[in-house]
């Protein structure tokens, strides 16, 4: 049997409560998308249906019996989304049941997620400068800002108020510093507050991936929002991510959340490229004395504890902050500084780590 027939057989074997029908006969399967070994199933159940508690786990367990499927997510709707409801005066249509393979950014050799367990650790700064460090090594690099609530890449890349061109209903990424990038910050007013629930965030991310003419290349760097929420799961399900780079500062509070980020990616079967320690120490420009403001070597010790690669440390440097605020990232201006050399070394370590995954 082909994959579609296997799915239909599974759905036909699951009873729809005590109705006497199976899931296919009951028309509760709204949609099914397969991305490599991941299957996402959408079902329609009334808000007060007792099956909301038991049916998702039944579907998940049954689909994992298919040899190609290792991960399953079940999404529940109270009714079909408005754009897919039956149109007036038309014949009733059976909801889509066949699995359809889809994955975005397949024209990139490596898709790297830059993530952190908590905010304020300099994740976006690391993402931007790592992208530039890879580009300086001759790689073709793109950058996608997946932080819907707090997009910062337009400012850091010097693209404040820049709008992408639209050609044939497709967004064209904005090119700057030799990198093609796009952010929700380039599509909405900078002062706008994105007061969106999870499903709206997921839809926005998927639409930006689907409706953008990404050029492809060696690396796509995904700047994820902090934490372990909807955006991370959506991207793990719709993009074939080569691995995740976890950014942390050395103090215990940040490292605890970094460990949670590592655990999340492991649960969705995404490899950890390694951990980066940002703001590792401050070297006084006057007396050259080194001060570990946020403790020291914490991320390196944590990486050993978690058995994941340690990619390197980035010192606190005034030029890093200034470059981000002025839209002139450090790697475009002072790549030979201590922090610049650290970013370059970390980029090299990422390449080596990917080779071993």
Provide key terms for this protein.
357 residues, alpha/beta, GMP Synthetase, Chain A, domain 3, Rossmann fold, 2 domains, nine-stranded mixed sheet, four-stranded mixed sheet, 12 helices, 34% helix
Provide a descriptive summary of the structure in words.
With 357 residues, this protein is of the alpha/beta class. It folds into two domains: 3-101, GMP Synthetase, Chain A, domain 3 (2-Layer Sandwich); 108-356, Rossmann fold (3-Layer(aba) Sandwich). 34% of the residues lie in helices and 24% in strands. The protein contains twelve helices and 15 strands. The protein has helices at residues 3-12, 23-26, 55-63, 123-136, 153-156, 198-210, 230-238, 252-267, 298-306, 318-326, 330-333, 338-356, and strands at residues 29-35, 38-44, 71-77, 100-101, 108-115, 141-145, 165-167, 170-172, 174-176, 179-183, 217-223, 243-248, 272-283, 290-291, 310-316. Strands 5, 6, 9, 10, 11, 12, 13, 14 and 15 form a nine-stranded mixed beta sheet that branches. A four-stranded mixed beta sheet has the order 3-2-1-4. A two-stranded antiparallel ribbon has the order 7-8. Helix 6 packs parallel to helix 7 (230-238) and helix 8 (252-267) runs parallel beside helix 9 (298-306). Mean pLDDT is 86; it is low at 83-102.
